[in-house]
Design goal:
399 residues; alpha/beta; six-stranded mixed beta sheet; 12 helices; 12 strands; 34% helix; binds 2-acetamido-2-deoxy-beta-D-glucopyranose; hydrolase; Sphingomyelin phosphodiesterase; glycoprotein; Metallo-depent_PP-like
């Protein structure tokens, strides 16, 4: 049974998908810029019911509560309905037309579906997400690692579940965690010898959880990983892509905190989830990368404003922001120095742009605290109280 579950998690994490653009990219090897997408945490819920309250996970299980309004596109506080999965794929196809590949960093199944009997609902969710992605992008190769991008870059997909303390992987984790670290070290050495640069992707990130300040990985593995990526091989790493927190986010990795200015560094980019369960709008990113210097240049975040979509029954995926415009810098690449600068500017006393942008970006523009958007709209607009109430009662989405 355990081996079976292990296999599932390898599959969950090990998706990097090649798209039609990849085929085209191979035919145009001379081009210097390539695009790819990062999407994550679909958490597709086979049992989503648009009429049921988030208090009972939008499922008609025993003792369920009805919601005050229907939410066919997805509901803040619940995992993703099939509509949201399909809509995300369609939006990716449109916004990432030229993308050569997609990084899909897990977690495909809804919450509370894992069990000791082989978790058939988890498997079914994985199967549905994969086959729908296949329908949209045609090319869909779940892989553990691949080398394309003019042969100068490699994508490595370790399974971070083994570096994270998790009951599902428990009986084997130490052995596999160890082997996997050795594999990673070998791959990085190989890339360095061949003059290649590396993208790393997995699900649960190294570093801390902004929600409760807990650190995810087992300390000894976090340390050894950091020594590899931010130490010996920092110049080999072009980017690390993780998710799991459901937030658009950044992580710097400084090795020598005694002397931060001269320390070697690396960085992680985390992407917001498709699932709105932890109070964020669904989002994904389209990256631009220079293949001549094997470096990340920029990205665009796109998102679906769920409350507006629900209120007006008009679901439209919108452009959110471009990294280089939101976080302007003399540095024209997304690299460790750039993320270092960004993190320092989050606590700038003179410039609020970085903080404001970061705060809005993390949830793809869903305000996480208690507030009522349509109430604000009505109060801005109407000077007399009765007019306010008339306006307010007109909207069905209230918080
Ligand atoms: C959603 O739940 C309601 C209340 O239990 C039920 O009447 C309805 O049939 C369910 N819808 C679907 C699609 O299952
Ligand atoms: C995916 O989400 C489910 C539900 O929360 C959880 O049980 C499982 O551990 C997650 N898997 C990963 C790889 O995070």
């Amino acid at each position: 049974m355990n081996r079976f579950i292990l296999l599932i998690f390898v599959v969950i994490i090990g998706f990097s998908l090649l798209t039609e653009g990849w085929k085209k990219g191979r035919r145009h090897r001379k081009r210097k810029v390539t695009k790819f997408m990062h999407v994550s945490d679909v958490h597709f819920d086979l049992f989503y019911n648009q009429s049921i309250s988030k208090d009972t996970s939008c499922r008609s299980t025993e003792g369920f509560k009805m919601a005050d309004h229907e939410a066919p596109y997805g509901r803040i506080g619940c995992d993703s309905p099939e509509w949201l999965l399909e809509s995300t794929l369609a939006a990716m196809k449109e916004k990432g037309k030229d993308a050569e590949f997609i990084l899909l960093t897990g977690n495909l199944s809804a919450h509370d579906m894992t069990d000791d009997q082989g978790s058939p609902n988890v498997l079914k969710a994985i199967q549905t997400v994969s086959s729908k992605a296949h329908e949209v992008f045609h090319f869909f190769y779940p892989l553990c690692c691949f080398s394309s991008l003019d042969g100068k870059m490699v994508v490595l997909v370790p399974n971070a579940m083994y570096w994270n303390n998790n009951w599902q992987t428990y009986p084997l984790w130490d052995e596999i965690a160890e082997r996997q670290l050795q594999w990673l070290a070998e791959q990085l050495a190989l890339a360095k010898n061949k003059g290649k640069r590396v993208l790393i992707m997995s699900h649960i990130p190294p570093g801390g959880d902004p929600f409760n300040y807990n650190y995810f990985w087992i300390p000894k593995y976090a340390e050894r990983y950091a020594i590899l990526v931010a130490g010996k091989y920092h110049d080999v790493i072009a980017g690390q892509f993780y998710a799991h927190t459901h937030k658009d986010d950044f992580r710097l990795q400084i090795l020598n905190t005694e002397d931060e200015k001269t320390s070697t560094k690396s960085f992680v980019l985390q992407t917001a989830s498709v699932s709105p369960i932890y109070s964020n709008n669904p989002a994904f990113k389209v990256f631009t990368m220079r293949t001549d210097i094997q470096a990340l240049v920029d990205y665009d975040q796109h998102y679906l404003d769920l409350e507006i979509a629900t209120e007006f029954s008009n679901p439209v995926w919108k452009f959110d922001y471009t990294f280089s415009k939101r976080y302007p810098s003399k540095n024209k690449l997304i690299n460790a120095n750039r993320i270092d600068e960004l993190s320092q500017k989050l606590i700038s006393q003179t410039d609020a742009q970085y903080w404001n942008g970061y705060f809005m970006g993390t949830t793809a523009n869903y305000f996480p605290s208690h507030y009522d958007r349509f109430g604000l709209y009505c109060i801005v607009r109407y000077v007399l109280e009765d007019d306010f109430h008339r306006c307010y009662d007109n909207f069905k989405v209230h918080n």
